[in-house]
Automatic annotation (TrEMBL):
It is found in: Cytoplasm. Belongs to the ferrochelatase family. HAMAP family: Ferrochelatase. The gene is hemH. Its main location: cytoplasm. Fe(2+) binds at residues 203, 281. It catalyses: heme b + 2 H(+) = protoporphyrin IX + Fe(2+); Fe-coproporphyrin III + 2 H(+) = coproporphyrin III + Fe(2+). The lineage of its organism: Bacteria, Pseudomonadati, Pseudomonadota, Alphaproteobacteria, Sphingomonadales. Pathway: Porphyrin-containing compound metabolism; protoheme biosynthesis; protoheme from protoporphyrin-IX: step 1/1. This is Ferrochelatase. Keywords: Cytoplasm, Heme biosynthesis, Iron, Lyase, Metal-binding, Porphyrin biosynthesis. Catalyzes the ferrous insertion into protoporphyrin IX.
Amino acid sequence: MTPDHPPIPTPRIGVLLVNLGTPDAADAPSVKRYLREFLSDRRVVEIPPIVWQPILRGIILNTRPKKSAHAYQQVWREDGSPLAAITRAQATALAGSFGPDVTVDWAMRYGNPGIAAKIADLKAAGCERILIAPLYPQYCAATTATANDAAFAALAAMRWQPAIRTLPPYYDDPAYIAALKDSVETALAALDFTPDTIVASFHGMPQRTLALGDPYHCHCQKTARLLGEALGREVVIAFQSRFGRAKWLEPATDATLAALPGRGVKRVAIVAPGFSADCLETLEEIAIRGRDTFLANGGETFAYLPCLNDSAPGLLLLGRIIARELEGWRAPA
Ligand SMILES: C=CC1=C(C)c2cc3[nH]c(cc4nc(cc5[nH]c(cc1n2)c(C)c5CCC(=O)O)C(CCC(=O)O)=C4C)c(C)c3C=C
Ligand SMILES: [Fe+2]
Ligand SMILES: [Fe+2]
């Protein structure tokens, strides 16, 4: 190398776990910053910006942050937002699992740490090949596609781009279904009651995205069916977290929890298979508000079963699906 040649690090492989994003703190200004970025994403709100931005900036960002900050305060941990803390723990636990040449890191689509910064870090560390792994079992344009968009946008600014692979959805992967079964059975065994019904609650989406060709609804249906088959019992599907006035996928989780006692279901367990990490939507919306709804409508016992998170079955699953996508990039173990 000539003396003025830029340094070239030893080639490595990067794995970037990506989740949705979360505020930096559980206060209204931080939530407002986060919501402004999140809800300005045209993959998330598919209303022309000329119509949507005045509603977002004039109404939503002046009302929702205070309410959402209060919700975040109820689930915030010493190490921060549950979503960020758990995603970080997943990356830490997986470090070293794929051999000495593979670096595992994590990023958030909205907020911090950002995808572009993490790709730049990986590249600077010598990663010439990077697997972008959006941790959404069910493909959705509002989650999977926008995470990949952000990665590709980061590459657009690079002279020397790394080669990129993206993690496919894994909604019907036997390893995913086995991990869910294992996790649900372990959680059920620790309860002091036997639930009459298990509800599988997925994040909702506007109903029209189904007609527009998003496979999310079908992926959720198949996951719920396969989980029911694996558990050998009925699993009732529902969709949570409705946002805005449009019609969303049904049945809604809150309406389902309110109706179940009237149908004779007095003891319920609920799991959220579409979330790879517990977050506001599971810990506050389901485990706190969902419980209140069920009990207020005549339910007697309620249990929220945790997400796969950094549990042993969760990490086994992530290890397997990531190792498969790295095939051909690294020497077999
Ligand atoms: C798991 C898949 C998710 C899909 C699909 C999804 C779609 C979607 N979400 C909103 C609006 C909001 N979601 C919010 C939080 C949130 N959403 C997901 C996942 C999916 N969203 C997660 C993991 C989280 C939790 C973030 C955390 O910090 O813990 C919020 C913010 C919270 C609040 O103010 O209520 C909003 C808003 C839309 C509009 C949408 C699809 C159109
Ligand atoms: Fe959401
Ligand atoms: Fe469908």
